[in-house]
Every structure is written in structure tokens, then in C-alpha cells.
Amino acid sequence: MHLPLDEIKRKLELKSKTNMNTGEVEKQVDVVTMHMKQLHNEISVLLPLIHHLDQKQMSDLSKKLNYESSTLIQSLASLNS
Q1: Suppose 20 and one of 24, 55, 58, 78 were both cysteines; which one would form an S-S bond, judging by CB atoms 3.0 to 4.6 Å apart?
Q2: Superkingdom of this entry's organism (predicted)?
Q3: Is the dihedral of CA 80, 28, 68, 41 positive or negative?
């Protein structure tokens, strides 16, 4: 993923903050939500293409996607604990 320098700077500034106002948090949640929707759309485009690959290729790509999705789900689940 390629991030512009100003986006990298903004993310580093967010990590260094010890407290944020509700508006800043909501803005970041909106950004993450937008990224998740974009990922969903990209996966929807990829799935038919993946199904046309041979079994080994499909399995390898599926493992990559499953690992990353599991990590994301764990991160999201930590919000409820």
C-alpha cells in the first residue's frame, strides 16, 4: 500500500497522542470504515478471478486472505472486550 507522506505523518501524530477528542476518533473510525468498504469491493472483484485459478493457486491466495482477515477480525473483536 502506498501512502502519501502527509498521511504517514498524520498516522504517526495519531499514535503519539495520549488523548483525542471524540470528533477525531469518529473521523478515524470513518476512515477505517471507508477502507473496509473498499476492501470488500476489491475482494468482490477478485473472487470470480480466483475461482478460475488452479486448486493450488486458489489455496495459496485463500490462505493469504484468510490470515489477514483473521487478524482484522481479532482487532475488531478487541473493541468489544
Answers
A1: 24
A2: Bacteria
A3: positive
Contact 61, 53 (CB under 8 A): yes
Report the C-alpha gap between 38 and 35 in whole angstroms.
5
The answer to whether 35 and 27 have CB atoms below 8 angstroms apart is no
Cβ-contact 48, 60 below 8 angstroms: no
Residue type, 66: N
Helix (H) or strand (E) holding 33, with range, is helix 22-50
pTM above 0.70, yes or no: no
Per-residue pLDDT tens over the stretch 30-41: 988 999 999 999
pLDDT in tens, 4-29: 777 777 777 777 776 767 887 888 88
Containing H/E element for 60?
helix 55-77
